[in-house]
Design a protein that fits this description.
By secondary structure, this protein is α+β, with helices and mostly antiparallel strands. The strands form two sheets. A five-stranded antiparallel beta sheet has the order 2-1-5-4-3, with no helix packed on it. The chain has a four-stranded antiparallel beta sheet with strand order 7-6-9-8. Strand 6 and strand 7 form a beta hairpin. It is elongated, with a radius of gyration of 26 Å. The N and C termini lie far apart (89 Å).
Length: 203
């Protein structure tokens, strides 16, 4: 009864759970939006993850898996803090795949990389690139670009967002670019010769 109808947010990436937490950090009510159970670590939530005023988001690791925790203070009519509302989102293959709809090309895989251990924490396509794969193994088949979360304050992890493009796709793009460049040079050469010949003829 304390949540809006699912029709209002069914097209969005659904969180794993939505929690009602009291002022002492104890989880009082749990709404399960998915099939995965709530990590036991979130039955009593550390105040470090809880917002004191406006919404606060933290990227952290629970049971060796990346999670996004988003919390906001709940207040009564007088403005007195009554507790917290928290959304729990596991950054798994479903979340990453949904975040790339209409963006990533065929065969492109995105994931979260542990910068210290140089291993993949999550993958948008575990069938292609398994969670736990090392950077050196991935680099044999993919061209890797990484974006650091270093400047993001709301994280307890040293992780990077990685985009993995198959080397075959990169080679195909290079060939197409080289072909276009060759045609442009040919057109420029023919145009130059034609104009020079015409000028010479008119003189």
């Amino acid at each position: 009864p304390w949540l809006p109808g699912t029709s209002l947010w069914q097209k969005l990436v659904q969180p794993g759970q939505i929690l009602l937490i009291d002022r002492n950090g104890r989880t009082r009510e749990i709404f399960n939006a998915g099939s995965k159970p709530l990590p036991s670590e979130l039955l009593n939530v550390d105040e470090f993850y809880l917002s004191e005023s406006r919404a606060k988001a933290f990227l952290t690791s629970i049971q060796e898996k990346p999670y996004l925790l988003i919390s906001e203070t709940i207040e009564d009519a007088t403005g007195t803090s009554m507790g917290y509302l928290m959304m729990v989102v596991q950054l798994d293959d479903g979340f990453l795949a949904a975040s790339q709809q209409g963006v990533a090309g065929d065969g492109v895989v995105v994931g979260l990389m542990d910068s210290d251990e140089q291993v993949l924490l999550s993958s948008s396509d575990p069938a292609r690139v398994k969670v736990g794969s090392g950077l050196s193994d991935i680099a044999e088949r993919y061209v890797i670009t990484e974006q650091s979360f270093f400047e993001y304050e709301g994280t307890t992890l040293n992780i990077q967002f990685a985009t993995l493009m198959p080397k075959e796709s990169v080679d195909a793009i290079r060939e197409r670019v080289a072909g276009v460049e060759m045609r442009q040079r040919l057109v420029a050469a023919v145009t130059f010769i034609t104009v020079f010949t015409l000028v010479f003829y008119l003189l």
